[in-house]
Amino acid sequence: MNKLFLTKQSIDQMSGVAYKSIHQKKRLLAYFAEHGPSAIGDLRRALHLSVPKVTALLNELMEEQFVRDYGKDNSTGGRPPNLYGLAAESAYFLGVDVHRTFVHIALTDFQKNIVSITEQVPYTLANTPESLNALCELIGDFIAQLQTPREKIMGVGINLTGRVNSATGFSYSFFHFQDQPLSHVIGDKIGIPVVVENDSRAMAYGEFAAGVVERERNVLFLNMDYGIGMGMVLDGQLYYGKSGYSGEAGHMPVFDNNIICQCGKKGCLETEASGWALVERFKTRVRNGATTQLVQNPEHLEAINLEAIIQAAQSDDVLAIELIAEIGERLGRGIAALINVFNPELVVLGGSLAATGDYIRLPLLSALNKYSLSLVSNDTELKVSRLGNRAGVLGACLLVQHKFLSTAD
Amino acid sequence: MNKLFLTKQSIDQMSGVAYKSIHQKKRLLAYFAEHGPSAIGDLRRALHLSVPKVTALLNELMEEQFVRDYGKDNSTGGRPPNLYGLAAESAYFLGVDVHRTFVHIALTDFQKNIVSITEQVPYTLANTPESLNALCELIGDFIAQLQTPREKIMGVGINLTGRVNSATGFSYSFFHFQDQPLSHVIGDKIGIPVVVENDSRAMAYGEFAAGVVERERNVLFLNMDYGIGMGMVLDGQLYYGKSGYSGEAGHMPVFDNNIICQCGKKGCLETEASGWALVERFKTRVRNGATTQLVQNPEHLEAINLEAIIQAAQSDDVLAIELIAEIGERLGRGIAALINVFNPELVVLGGSLAATGDYIRLPLLSALNKYSLSLVSNDTELKVSRLGNRAGVLGACLLVQHKFLSTAD
DNA sequence: CTTGTTTTTTAAAAATATCAAAAAGAAGGG
DNA sequence: CCCTTCTTTTTGATATTTTTAAAAAACAAG
């Protein structure tokens, strides 16, 4: 039954009609994945095929269980068309969102529903083979506990921070121990094809495919955490750059300060407009006598970390709100630069700092008006992530689904 | 004969096979345009068609004069394959590169050769109907003087500065007098389909399709003139953004100065790293007593303009070279930001300032090392435009050709 | 000149589109 | 409430297009 998902080698050995048939079926499924259940007429127009041909393809796909009849659509005057769509339980996709101290793992069905999810599984990310093994075990455990039969899981998507080239399957910042691509290494261990992806890009895709993005085709997604990452959807496609290192917005040199960034350079956006900068500024203010819910004794600043500050802001801590606004204002300068360059329809604020909602969004918005060309920024909406901390793990699942239905070859 | 180039309306009325046949033929021609003369076997693989089908299509295209037999390729051991390619004289494309005080006009054949070109035609760009009429007359004069029959000119590409949406045909900064798109307005006047495009984007496409770009698929093109514009080729496609306003790199807020930019904001890249900034700094230095070939009397600074400074640098004027290096250094900061975001394979330096070659390129390069993540900038090459001041006009021609062969619908 | 290799042509087989007919509702009238 | 008419979708038979597979052709090398 799993005849649709093939390796690149087998494509060359395939006969012309076999290739064509698979290509057409994938295009049908991809159309369903993007547009939901559809009538034969729509499919015909979109794929430039005849009605009988589409009917035949759909019948085969229904035989293969990938497609299901979704009943009648509302009539437009005459006979109502039949709707066909993906059969939710015919294929599943697993996503793993790896953070420094925990992972999220989720399984989605063919209809993009979350079937099973475990969040905040304790895990320590380190660039060691042991850490990689531990990750594979966590994935194995998750699969073992599922109701879903293993062979129905068509792929596993894994998000990692740092430099990842999802086309080749290589991760350079983490787990780069072998000559083989990491995706193959893990894929061999767990026996399911693997796609590795950069975390911010996966989050961007999550919001794009199932989040706050509606019809927009040019979207910037800001992953605001301790650092600042960015995922970009341009002309409806995830953008990678030459070797998957795009989106390092946090290291744009936009300030004239002397703060040394993690990357070793000075003046990076991150040095003044990131979770890291927020924590530093918070500590400095407390040391200088500012009061906050978070700490009573200015000698003991251990309790101050990013999550704590975000929580404090949500409980109306004045200092937290004030400093988050400052961060938003500075971030606005960086985003203004990006808007001038990309002319996007939408900028999505994501990552842990996005949980502060309008506390960060509104100062950012006013900075945008200050720094970006008004004509350009009038084109651009600014929204807060809808998926929140599930953006990554959902993005991983959906990205695997997308890759399996892609006809790029 | 001109059956391949159709309006969008007629596509819907077309029968399925007619559409398919045109689609396939266009794909063949587009393949030739990109890869040059090719053998049937290559075409078969690239288009996923059978050999007899490709043969039949080629025969029709040869009948229609678009394709020509280019003789035998070198044998790989057995029978040598026949090469087919575009017939240079079967279709022509006209490009018009509009500057403030002059225009370049050129005609290219189907093989991307320049058939005829007139450069620096005096013309005054103003946002008035008269100026638009004058432009149309210049185009008409150019066509009248050609040997090429008018009906073989498949399209006219026109580059304008400012905000241009080439998909809809609207230009907003210039000639926006009617509700109709500008491309239709001009097209009706001269009787040939028109494509309007932003100048920097057209230049970027020129370098991409026939200039310094070889196999790179992610390329940033800097148009360094009085202002700083940018055209972007991402994943092998020109990037437009939501409404064709992308690439405003000159207005990224990266400096903390108080110089007010043309756009009304402060701190724009252009305020310190553009031809405009170069002229201002040059004047200031001369007023403060610096010596230069350009002026003897510091009271008379009229002779100082961008072209003069560039020429002075080329004749080894120390002040010019020094200030150009300064501009390059500052521009490096902006480009570093872009490289961090785009992870491109190549950044092309174009526009009039590019004529200074290594005088601007080398300081820029060292600034890049200072400001961008080394891993990212190691991926990126920095080259000077090959087409020089012909990038725009050639880009206009090639972009029209590209649009006419596109199967996007 | 023969043999080996690769490309091109050809004719039979398969796949696909077209067009006409049938089916499935919706709307309106008796 | 049922029947007729209207509209649109779906099906089926036929015509067309496309692929397949086998034969022929073109050239290189021995």
Task: Describe the protein's architecture and organization.
2 copies of one chain form a homodimer. The first copy, chain A, has 13 helices and 15 strands. Helix content of chain A is 41%, strand content 19%. Chain A has helices at 8-13, 16-35, 40-47, 51-63, 129-145, 182-190, 199-210, 275-287, 306-314, 318-342, 358-371, 374-378, 391-405; strands spanning 38-39, 67-72, 82-86, 92-98, 102-109, 114-122, 153-160, 164-165, 170-171, 194-198, 219-224, 228-234, 237-238, 346-350, 381-384. In chain A, helix 7 packs across helix 13 (391-405) and helix 10 packs across helix 11 (358-371). Chain A has 3 domains: 8-89, Winged helix-like DNA-binding domain superfamily/Winged helix DNA-binding domain (Arc Repressor Mutant, subunit A, Orthogonal Bundle); 91-199, Nucleotidyltransferase, domain 5; 212-385, Nucleotidyltransferase, domain 5, CATH 3.30.420. Chain A is an alpha/beta fold. Chains A and B meet through helix 2 and helix 10 of A and helix 2 and helix 10 of B. The structure holds a DNA duplex (30 and 30 nucleotides).
